[in-house]
Specification:
Elements (H helix, E strand, L loop, with lengths): L8 H28 L6 H24 L12 H25 L7 H26 L2 H6 L4 E6 L3 H12 L5 E8 L8 E2 L2 E6 L3 H7 L4 E5 L5 H13 L3 E5 L2 H6 L7 E2 L2 H5 L8 H8 L3 E5 L4 H10 L6 E6 L2 H14 L5 E5 L5 H11 L3 E4 L6 H6 L1 H21 L4 E7 L8 H17 L5 E7 L1 E3 L5 H10 L4 E3 L5 E2 L1 E3 H14 L5 E4 L5 E2 H11 L10 E3 L18 E4 L5 E5 L5 H14 L4 H11 L27 H4 L17 H9 L1
Parallel strand pairs: 1-2, 1-5, 2-4, 5-6, 8-9, 8-11, 9-10, 11-12, 12-13, 13-18, 14-17, 15-20
Antiparallel strand pairs: 3-4, 6-7, 16-19, 18-22, 21-22
Length: 665
Amino acid sequence: MLNLHFPTNHSTRAALRAALSGPLFVLIYFGSYWLRFEGDWNGPTINLFLSTFVWVASLKVAAFAYFRVYQSWGRYLTFHDLMLLLKAATTSSFAILLMDFLLYPGLSTPRSVFLMDWGLTIVALGGMRSLTRLLDEQELSNWFTQGLTPALIVGANDSGEALLRAIRRNPRLTYRVVGFIAGAQESADTHIAGVPVIGSLDETCELAQKHQVSDVFITAGELSGQQVRDLVDRTRVAQINVRVLPSYEQLLSGRVDLRPREVSIEDLLRREPVRLNMAELHRWIDDRVLLVTGSAGSIGSEICRQLLQFSPRRLVLVDRSENGQFFLERELRRLVPDLDIEICIGDVTDAARMRSLFRTHRPDIVFHAAAYKHVPLMEAHPGEAVKNIVLATKLLADEAEACGVSSFVMISTDKAVNPTSVMGVCKRVAELYVQAKAAVSHCQFVTVRFGNVLDSAGSVVPLFRQQIAAGGPVTVTHPEMVRYFMTIPEASQLVIQAGAMGRGGEIFVLDMGDPVKIVDLARDMIRLSGLELGKDIDIEFVGQRPGEKLFEELNCDDERHRPTSHSKIMVAESGRADLAVLQGALEHLQQMANGNAASIFAVLKKIVPAYAAAKIPAQPRIGGGRMPVIAGLTRESAMPTESSRDVIPIGERLSEPTRERRKAA
């Protein structure tokens, strides 16, 4: 049976280019002769040209085909392609010289003909390819086409140049970039790909108005959160749109396309990217069995994703959420099909189940992320908080030591610092136990403490989104409520890095950046949703909930922070609890876990003397003129007091005098 092979479209186009290049090479060869003899042709010259042009063109076609010049022809012309063209032209010229010497030893072609042929070949084909790229990027059409939207790009650097190319190449983006805005460390007197750098970030509004620009582009992650915030505030007054295009990291993840989007709350709150010591992490993780508790949660699942960039022998994921584990398994197996992943359904308070998992899988490293996290719910159910946070941590730490685990990393929270909630004090007790355990164990027990995680399940950002989508009101607990935020990937990466740095007994505190005022967060999200506060949607102050602080603290009264080798990780140094005494107190706490709340509070207070229930003032509603009386407050007494005027906006750090005033209040 005859088996016919039909070339693909790509192969057909390459063959067509090769066929068309033959006559072009003859024309270039003829031009070289004409230039060499200045148009004065005689019989021998004409005969020599006619006897050589066929094999000269054939050698050049063969050389260009060998270097795959015809296959790389198209819109993605790069310096590499031009070097390929230079190699093909040079190789063909040497081959022609050799062939001419062998065939015509007596009457050879002048060497200057071949030199001019080499140069004209590079100029002609390079020019044609550049013209193809120019037409594809619509540069010529942009010179004559009206209606394209003028735009500016922030960042006179590699990211800005890549963004310019993305805009030029994408037919869906009908923009014409008229200039670049230089950052603090960038020159403002240069051109990038033919586009001038016209000024600095502080001059954005003036430059946009001068050039009649209505859109300013930035690459996601190019500016700090404070810079994005300042830029958005200035351009909003001037009615200029700030749009964000994805970075190449986001493009490679496959989550986004090249269409610009509006500035998001993540852009306003972002900080400098985390830099990990990859060599240290590979030594710690590679070829090890890793176990992650709470793997279906926001932090636990992100820790699992971050661990995929290493080479663990096995990844054991433990959580009691069936649906969460199901979807996490599908995601991780799609990302790394060859990794040995064990999905385990189990409750960390179930001693028999945890003992079985540890005995079966024999983990080398444990990341303990399982815990309750909602402060008001734990105030209502203190016994469950004790079981899920304190006793579960003790159970897992004891099993880790018994099974020869080399490293145990517990996830804690800044709510454990001078705790005012059941959840916070339970985390502090768990910290004390892990730290005390490290003093007598071969296992490297460490704790990692950080603040709120931006956009985690059940946190304030998705709650605000839901309330805004429903038309409001957006509920804020208190006008002076302040929190520290980290992104989920940032927190997870630093947890892993801190775990690798631990030698046993450390409480690592992550640099959480600047505090965020929750009411400013609400205002920003309303504005970024295209709505106006007080007109389209209101903010309602509903009062602090049980156990909540107005602001979180970074270290306990008896702690001091010292730096580590990583700029974003510190160690909280303090005295350590006696393990035997603490074990006795936890046995008592375990007996009281199903008892009345007052007894549980008393035991927790005995273990952590700094524990004190938060005082909860009532608060009014604002926005749209509504301000009803709450908990007996009059309209005047419900208004913000003089002390609330120095509320810290996003990007400013709480000063010590302000902190002291708030403590006193």
